[in-house]
UniProtKB/TrEMBL annotation:
Gene3D superfamilies named in the record: Dimeric alpha+beta barrel
Coiled-coil parts of chain: none
InterPro entries attached to this UniProt entry: Dimeric_a/b-barrel, YCII
YCII-related domain: residues covered: 16-92
Full protein name: YciI family protein
Species: Bacillus salipaludis
Family: Belongs to the YciI family.
Length: 99
């Protein structure tokens, strides 16, 4: 079955979040990064990273269905703990290095 791609936009719950993260939030974001890296190692994440101005972060994720993609984000430590909200959109990578 062909895998679908999804764009996730992760937004922090407050303004100026990058500059005002608590130690607990930094630890949660460390777990978030571990989780995303594990999914990358499994071939499920195409790319991931934050906007350097703190506006939001993005993940391009491969899944067999929208439900599977939703489960991925429901299991993300940053989403589970309420540190960030995620908007999920069907997406297609048209141009990318190596494709």
């Amino acid at each position: 079955m062909e895998q679908l791609e999804f764009l996730a936009i992760g937004k922090a719950k407050r303004e100026n979040w990058l500059a005002t993260m608590t130690p607990e939030e930094k630890a949660i974001m460390g777990k978030h990064l571990e989780y995303v890296r594990q999914m990358y190692a499994e071939g499920k994440v195409v790319l991931s990273g934050p906007c350097l101005d703190g506006a939001y972060g993005i993940i391009i994720y491969k899944a067999e269905s929208a439900e599977d993609a939703q489960k991925f984000f429901e299991n993300d430590p940053a989403v589970q703990t309420g540190v960030m909200d995620v908007e999920l959109h069907p997406f297609k990578v048209e141009v990318m290095e190596g494709r």
